[in-house]
Amino acid sequence: MKRRNLALSIIAIALLLLFLIFADSSLDSYQKRILNLCAIYVILGLSMNLINGFTGLFSLGHAGFMAVGAYTTALLTMSPAIKEQTFYLEPIVAPLANLNMPFLPALLMAGILSAFVAFIIGAPVLRLKGDYLAIATLGFSEIIRIIFTNTQSITNGSLGLKSIPPHTNLWWSFGGAALTVIFMVFLIKSSYGKAFKAIREDEIAAESMGIGLFKHKMLSFVTGAFIAGVGGGLLGSLLGAINPNMFRFVLTFNVLLVIVLGGMGSITGTVISAFVVTSGLEYLRFLDETIDLGFIEIPGVAGLRMVVFALLLMMVVVFFRNGLMGTNEFSWDKLISFLKRKFPFKKEVGH
Amino acid sequence: MTLLLKTDGITMKFGGLTAVKDLNLEINQGEIVALIGPNGAGKTTAFNMITGVYKPTEGKIHFSKKDITGLKPHLITKHGMARTFQNIRLFKELSVMDNVLIANHLHLKASYLESILHLPRYRQQKNASVKKSEFLLERLGLSQFKDEKASSLPYGLQRRLEIARALATDPKLLLLDEPAAGMNPKETDDLTHFIKEIRDEFQLTILLIEHHMSVVMGISDRIYVLDHGITIAVGNPQSIQNDQKVIEAYLGVSEDA
């Protein structure tokens, strides 16, 4: 059984690699960008699911962590010459002007800085529960955005950063997504992951079983922020230009959509729904344009696809509260037994 | 006999209401002590003070010669005290096995990173806790349900699982909050034997709140009786049964008396 599963996993990974090689060489840049976005949303979704889905902390500060990550990566990878061009209103502060490093350390720095910010705000905020935590973290992410708008000599204010070196490609984004998935699987399987889930299930019982609430909430929050920072860095480098207004609540909402549709507390669900939601948002772009039905012409309404997605979210919350996967995870055994139930004749052939 | 738990006049006030007043418990190692009293007497409040859920307004709590007054619940559990809840508080969506495994987490020495990366030190400790949890489930007759969701167990087994989970923290003192609630006479009888058995097997000291007098009188070495937050009697089961104040608290005072 174990060997069969291992073989199946190796085949699946090989297929994914083949697909990536194919995609990298023959898809056009628009399709590649969507694939990149999907993978980045896997990373962002997992980081939010760790905090909200697995630990049960209702945090809405994700855009803030992503902003920290995106700006850090951008500022660390842009060359001094480009920085001088970009910061034409007010020159960039001295130590940042000449700081330049490769993409990987820049991404790690983005994660570390974002985790550090989470640590600082976590100390007061994680004492709150439920809705109060949501409001406080939402406030935090708005504060970050406003700080970034006003620190002209560090972030270039509302002009944003342009010509960010486009390091993010399919290998970076899918590599990052794969690493995050593996990390999450290991974390959730570990004793700490179980402790997080215990806090989600019942805080009072968890505390009575010797689980320090504050320490474990902090660990989850900081880890989630680290991953979100890296995801933000990848996103910034993919888009090539960032400004503070990108990191409004809508960004947090998109990630929230991914994890709610996929299932709060399911890694598998987040991965699937990141692909569905991201490509869906692109595919539904026709809703924003003028639709010609032949006999009637519906004028284009910008943002109609977001309305559709909001409706979808509402329907999920009302009718399928557990999302796509609930708290279940994918396993080969489950898939095979599912297929056997669906196609029973296969079993007879085997006999 | 060594003193394990001692409360020095602990008092809990909620605004103007005094839920528990000047409670002086003394529990020796290996004893089974019961805390009884009519509804609203302050028994669960006393439990919550001892386990750190509430910080007593006045008084001190000493547990195995250490002052634990005002410590957080998880630290008190680390000192060797575990509890069950009056209205069962299991990790409902998690498996029976996970419920017990989580109670081993407080003994984990491996760091966060070691645990995530499943390094040798973590794996070794994890294997030990899996073994211990399997033993506990086996001992409490729950091993056939170990992969079931905790919420899918019948009521009586959920109570057992709560005890298994509490035992997994390696307690010296086990606090049971109405372990026989909702059980029929046969189950109550089994529970009485069961509590004695685990006391002997795991070298426990037990403090329990209970309304079933058959359980209380059958297993307690000593009984504390609370009424409106005040300790009205202390003694062995026999003396409590004949105590005039206790009878009055439970049955009310006759007009003619």
From TrEMBL, chain A:
GO terms for molecular function: branched-chain amino acid transmembrane transporter activity. It is a multi-pass membrane protein. The chain crosses the membrane at residues 33-51, 63-82, 102-125, 170-188, 218-242, 254-277, 298-320. GO terms for cellular component: plasma membrane. It holds the Pfam family BPD_transp_2. InterPro entries: ABC_transp_permease, LivM-like. It is found in: Cell membrane. Its main location: membrane. The keyword Transmembrane helix applies. The keyword Iron-sulfur does not apply. Keywords: Cell membrane, Membrane, Transmembrane, Transmembrane helix. This is Branched-chain amino acid ABC transporter permease.
Automatic annotation (TrEMBL), chain B:
Keywords: ATP-binding, Nucleotide-binding, Transport. This is ABC transporter ATP-binding protein. Pfam families: ABC_tran, BCA_ABC_TP_C. InterPro entries: AAA+_ATPase, ABC_AA/LPS_Transport, ABC_transporter-like_ATP-bd, BCA_ABC_TP_C, P-loop_NTPase. Residues 5-253 form the ABC transporter domain. It comes from the Bacteria. GO terms for molecular function: ATP binding; ATP hydrolysis activity; L-isoleucine transmembrane transporter activity; L-phenylalanine transmembrane transporter activity; L-valine transmembrane transporter activity. SUPFAM superfamilies: P-loop containing nucleoside triphosphate hydrolases (SSF52540). Transmembrane segments: none annotated. One of its GO terms (cellular component) is plasma membrane. Coiled coil: none annotated.
